[in-house]
Specification:
Length: 132
């Protein structure tokens, strides 16, 4: 999956890396100074956190349903639960329901403990646009 992420320019800018933990795909966004959105706290920029979650969801769907084209987002909702500290951030996604054309995905980002997420994503992806 890291190869897939390397084809996406913004994912390369974020430095995203991936690995498998058992059957779960985990995407890591290593901390870098350019990811800071609020230097006073300091806290990660919400856009970089959202991108991490969306790329993780896309990678999970692409892994589960390999196709010629990447799944396209239909709608994405991000919930920011707490400020992201200036440390590495991890994310994983779970496909909660998928059909022939659509997939519903849930993802979470965390820093130290997966039980304490800093943000979550709920999204629907178009798997196939055969009749679109």
């Amino acid at each position: 999956m890291t190869a897939l992420l390397n084809t996406l320019p913004y994912a390369r800018f974020l430095g995203l890396q991936s690995h498998m933990e058992g059957d779960d795909l985990v995407v890591v966004m290593p901390f870098a100074d350019h990811l800071i959105g609020n230097p006073v706290l300091p806290a990660l920029h919400g856009g970089s956190t959202a991108a991490l979650l969306e790329f993780t969801a896309v990678a999970q769907v692409a892994l589960a349903y390999p196709r010629l084209r990447l799944p396209r987002p239909i709608d994405v909702t991000i919930s920011y639960l707490r400020s992201g500290r200036p440390v590495d951030t991890m994310a994983s996604a779970r496909i909660s329901r998928a059909g022939r054309r659509l997939a519903h995905v849930l993802a979470q980002a965390w820093q130290d403990d997966p039980a304490n997420p800093i943000a979550s994503l709920t999204a629907n992806f178009l798997l196939s646009d055969d009749n679109a």
